[in-house]
From TrEMBL:
<dbReference type="Pfam" id="PF20434">
    <property type="entry name" value="BD-FAE"/>
</dbReference>
<feature type="domain" description="BD-FAE-like">
    <location>
        <begin position="36"/>
        <end position="153"/>
    </location>
</feature>
<dbReference type="InterPro" id="IPR050300">
    <property type="entry name" value="GDXG_lipolytic_enzyme"/>
</dbReference>
<dbReference type="InterPro" id="IPR049492">
    <property type="entry name" value="BD-FAE-like_dom"/>
</dbReference>
<protein>
    <submittedName>
        <fullName>Carboxylesterase family protein</fullName>
    </submittedName>
</protein>
<keyword id="KW-0378">Hydrolase</keyword>
<dbReference type="InterPro" id="IPR029058">
    <property type="entry name" value="AB_hydrolase_fold"/>
</dbReference>
<dbReference type="GO" id="GO:0016787">
    <property type="term" value="F:hydrolase activity"/>
</dbReference>
Amino acid sequence: MNRIIIAFAILVTCGISAQNMDTYIYAIKGNDTLRLDVFTPKNIKKSDSLPVLLWMHGGGFSGSHRAYPDDNKLVKYAAEKQGYIGVSIDYRLLRKNTVTGFGCDCTKDDKVETFKQAAIDYLDAAKFLVENAKSLQIDTSKIIAGGSSAGAEGILNAVFMKDYFVLDKKAYNNVSFAGLFSCAGAVVDARYITKENAIPAVLYHGTEDRLVPFGNASHHYCNPKKDGYMVLDGSARIVEKLRDFETAYYFNIVKGAGHEIARIPFEELDQIFQFFESTMINNKVIQTKIIKTKA
């Protein structure tokens, strides 16, 4: 399968900016052809092996795309300003054109399956990068898992709940993550965060997010009588686990804010990448909690 995927890679190089972009097919699943855009610093040397930001867009598992302007801007920034390989991926939008969507009318079983398949798609994208690390000039020991909203849920479940969602664990033996960057995300069960899988994390979340819970609460705050009632563990619960395991984190709390905190914090990207420089690359343990109030 991997040989087929590589053979059908689509290459689109843009040489007019400070980074180059290539597009590859990383998987074909049913009617879905899944692609990823790889942004490489224009001044990369043949001997370079660079850290990676592997980004998963939001959209409620029903909309948006890998080249959405904000997501595109982020991975370009990673390549142009930080000397990373920036990657933005497609994944299967399993709630697209469904009657129940992804809210309180969507059954818990459907939600769990959606989270599972999103995590698997993300792991498959990471696996593609690892298998092609030499040609893509990737340092596979320094992959940052990143995403916003639904994408943040996807990456958090891929990082922390692989043992729960994945049957064929051997397929991902060579896939590991060195850091994570989550904007308004949650994990299905924070008890799956262990000392072995805990990694330096940047997390942004609003305390009044009514879609993805800030702490331990129902997804979309659904009533227990609704089919879509499902309790998730948001950023606050994740940070509690990281604190207990003495793992680095940079936690940005916005009091009174809702799901708008899922937006990418472009104004703070320098600080975010400095955190990863200190923790992921220089192995420092830094635990920072920043509390703001919604304007």
